[in-house]
Specification:
mainly beta, Porin
């Protein structure tokens, strides 16, 4: 019964709006001059802890401006009092990389692990890139409501 109640509480409706100031990334490739301070601005609207819409812009790894729009699905939820850990995947459309689709829009699947504590949060995201090295990115978040 307690497990059932905990599962129901995890999916309670209640819109949460988060903002993000960009991210920092690590490409693990010292031979290329990647931008690893990816400043920008994003908004996340989570209808439940598992389902959210994401949008924003940032300075990408090639020092170019990118925009993204997507859906963040986090099926794995681990509530630990005021701390919530979650895991899932973001499905996004991204543009602005001159070496991918000539800067046009392309789809991306981004595995993620998230942590939230009151109004502070973070996503650790794996960014795959089959042509170059992938990256791991840390995105900090602040909940407005």
């Amino acid at each position: 019964m307690l497990l059932s109640m905990a599962a129901a509480a995890q999916d309670e409706p209640g819109l949460q709006i988060w903002i993000t100031p960009g991210m920092i990334s690590d490409h693990g490739n010292e031979e290329r001059d990647y931008n690893e301070k990816n400043t920008g601005f994003g908004v996340e609207a989570f209808i439940t802890p598992r389902h959210g819409l994401i949008a924003g812009r940032f300075e990408n790894s090639n020092y170019e401006q990118s925009r993204y729009l997507g859906y963040h699905w986090r099926p794995l939820q681990i509530p630990l009092g005021p701390l919530r850990l979650s895991g899932g995947v973001a499905l996004a459309l991204i543009d602005g990389y001159s070496d991918v689709n000539d800067g046009g829009t392309f789809p991306s699947i981004l595995p993620s692990v998230s942590a939230e504590f009151w109004r502070l949060g973070a996503h650790l995201i794996y960014v795959p890139n089959p042509e170059h090295s992938g990256a791991v990115a840390l995105l900090l978040r602040f909940r407005l409501w």
